[in-house]
Amino acid sequence: MKEELKELYRYRELLYMIAYRDIKVRYKQSIMGFMWAILMPVLIVLSGVVVRYAYAMASHAPLKTVDIANVAVKSLPWAFLVSSIRFACLSLINNKDLVTKIYFPKEIFPIAAVLASLFDFVVASGALIILLLVLRIGWSPYLAWTPALLLTMVLLAAGIGMIVSAASLYFRDVKFIVEVFLTFGIFFTPVFYDASMFGDKGKWLLLNPMSPILDGFGAAIARHQSPDLWWFAYSLVCTLLIFLGGYVFFKHLEPGFAESI
Amino acid sequence: MSDTAIRMEQVYKKFRKGETYNSLRDLLPALTGRMFQQQELSAGDKREFWAVQDLSFEVKQGEAFGIIGHNGAGKSTALKMLSRVMKPTKGRMVVKGRLSALIEVSAGFHQDLTGRENIFLNGTILGMTKREIQSKLDQIIAFSGIEEFIDTPVKRYSSGMYARLGFSVAAHVDPEVLIVDEVLSVGDYAFQQRCIERMREVLRGGAAVLFVSHNLKMVAEFCHRCLLLEKGQTVMIGTPQEVVSTYLQKPTNGHVADHGSGPVSISSVKIRNQDGECMQFRSGEKAWVDVELTARTHCNKLALTLYILDDKLMEIFDTSTDLLGHGNFDLDEGDAYRCTFEVSLNLADGTYHPSVLIYRRDIQMIYDRWEPAATIYVSSGGGVRGIANCFPQVIRQEIYQAVDATVVGGA
């Protein structure tokens, strides 16, 4: 495995190149260009606000700006996860020519898909920062948690990306399964709501490794609290297991890619 | 040995024939079917076949090594294993140094990116660093000869431009082992010459070149040694001249065993001039091709095709009993059939391969094919080049004083 990681490092320029290509190609021949990167998160944020407004109406509690900020902050990482998994899933199949004809570490494709989605995430974050400034959310020392949360989020996306890309190369069913999970996942993940709203049962929702990360973002940025350390530790362990497991799984299947695609 | 660049030792590669299961919906019934029917399993084993068997060879630094063989002989599989895209089922192989494979050089291109962007993309895919590409960018663009269009998306390129840009990038990788698979078949003559020149340079620089092509002439000119593959097995390794001539003679025998199992099969093909069976023909001379068939079962709507390949195995001529107005014919079990084609060999000097195939016309099903059925040499005594001999003559030639146009205009 050490050898394989070394090789991946040797091919890092190719990784950047493929990610650059994915970003560039995604917005070629479109008039709005990179503005599209903001559109989807904006829609998610808006639907979150609508849902939050419905809660507020139902419970006769006023809708606070913190709630809006909280939903907005959690929507972006969710949009990132969805888009990176969706692109990673097809990354090998869409690069059939390169998979069958030229040798290089093929995990570059799913990882590049994640990096390309990360670019969209960064663009959208710019818009989010403006929103947070407008809402006068302010800041707290807990913001220091953000890098750790970001890193966990990227590793989780890369791990899942490697698994689904390799699996969908063998079985095209995987891409449908993934699509279903991505569509309905938002209902099972505390994006629009908080796990704490469910009281004790909320912990079942946090078992999804993405949930504590989202909750952490909401806490550190919008609510000025520390993320729940136990749950974050749980999420980190899950993420590392998924990432390493996904990498081993991918490398195990890789020799058969060219003949099975 | 220390100067060995590539070594293959008893390499085998197994493939599965028939469908592989690409969705769970196909896999589950197949698996359950297998569980209940033990026979299925052994039938599955029969579907496996060896694409490459017991392949061993060695290429030294500074040596050009050619691989030839018919389609499906295992050439591409061998190269894919060397370039590590596929893993051998059995055997050992060693490749020393930086390997660059020119297998479909434009594989890394993205339609929506410009030529320049694609140079960087493809260059990185082939193993160059960004800085390396930057320093060679001008050379690469000049080599491709498409400076004007370098900032146009490649989807607007012609297929020739596309391939030329691809090769230009690939040619500027400085490999220690270069694998070339049929990439030179694109591009015009001048471009091909430039590519060969570039490959010679790489060779002089001490790299090993592995060259796979259907262009026998190029293989013979370029390679030091050559390997002939036939159905995954090594037939011989030797000088290009020896190997190419074995290759050209081999199929006549080889194909009988291979294809003789259909409902109707070709039993003999003979080519003769007025004096009898021969191989040497004069350009423009009449030749007769006798074909004999035997039918194993009742066959309907048959037609017999005669076609000729040139030395690059390009088809240059094609006719059939059907095209010649003889319709199609039926054969009963055990019937024999004989047909003689008369052709005028209006061909330029060179080596040609008359080939025949028998097929069922309505469903376009080929039952048997001998390709090539024979090898003939045509000589014209000079005066023409190319493929066809149009029997040219100069019937008028004179030197005369041109009228000065300006004087005429001024008058």
Biggest sheet record of chain B = 7 strands, mixed
- How many discrete domains of chain A? 1
Roughly what fraction of the amino acids of chain B lie in strands? 25-35%
Q: Indicate how many domains the architecture of chain B comprises.
A: 2
Q: What is the highest CATH level, the class of the largest domain in chain B?
A: Alpha Beta
Radius of gyration of chain B: 26 Å
Q: Can you say what the CATH homologous superfamily of the largest domain in chain B is?
A: P-loop containing nucleotide triphosphate hydrolases
Q: How far is the N terminus from the C terminus of chain B?
A: 83 Å
Structural class of chain B, by secondary structure, is alpha+beta
Rounded to the nearest angstrom, the distance between the terminal CA atoms of chain A is 24 Å
Helix fraction of chain A? over 70%
Oligomer: heterodimer
Outline the low-pLDDT stretches of chain A.
none
Largest β sheet strand count, sense and barrel closure of chain A: none
Number of strands of chain B: 20
Number of helices of chain B: 11
* Radius of gyration of chain A over all CA atoms, rounded: 19 Å
